[in-house]
Amino acid sequence: MSPFALSVLAEEQLTLARATDSGRSARTVHGGPGTRLRQTLLALVAGHALQEHASPGEATLQVLRGRVRLVVQDHSWPGSAGDLLVIPDARHALHADEDAVVLLTVARG
User: Fold this and answer.
1) Which residues neighbour 9 within 8 Å (Cβ) at sequence distance 6 or greater?
2) Dihedral angle at the C-alpha atoms of 50, 26, 100, 37, nearest 10 degrees?
3) Which of 18, 32, 41, 102 to pair with 68, CA 20 to 30 A apart?
4) Rounded distance between C-alpha atoms, residue 6 and residue 79, angstroms
5) Is pTM beyond 0.85 here?
6) Distance (Å, rounded) from C-alpha 78 to C-alpha 3?
7) DSSP state, 37?
């Protein structure tokens, strides 16, 4: 396995996100069918969001760039570059308060 620079991939994904109407772009950097651990680099342009959805397993978000808010019902948790957010086992949404890049790590059952 060859190492890669998350900072370079983050910039690439943010550039792609800025070019889309949805304001987001994602790339799986580790894992796939038949693996328990999956890591996905996700870029969101300020003002855009991943609408409410369920988590497929235990999950965390590491904020690599910008500011985001993890929202579960009436609760909201802010995250800035360097923060690690644990995603609760509940439907949730992710909002970008600034252009942001996060590393989503999911452990699937």
Assistant:
1) 27, 29, 41
2) 90
3) 32
4) 18
5) yes
6) 30
7) E
Beta bridge partners of 75: 72
| Cβ(67)–Cβ(97) below 8 Å | yes
Which of 13, 108, 28, 10 minimizes the C-alpha distance to 64?
10
Per-residue pLDDT for 84 more than 90? yes
Residue with tokens 């855009």: 48
Average pLDDT, the chain: 92
- Tell me: the pLDDT tens digits for 46-71? 999 999 988 777 999 999 999 999 99
- Sheet (strand 92-96) strand order: 49-53, 92-96, 67-72, 75-80
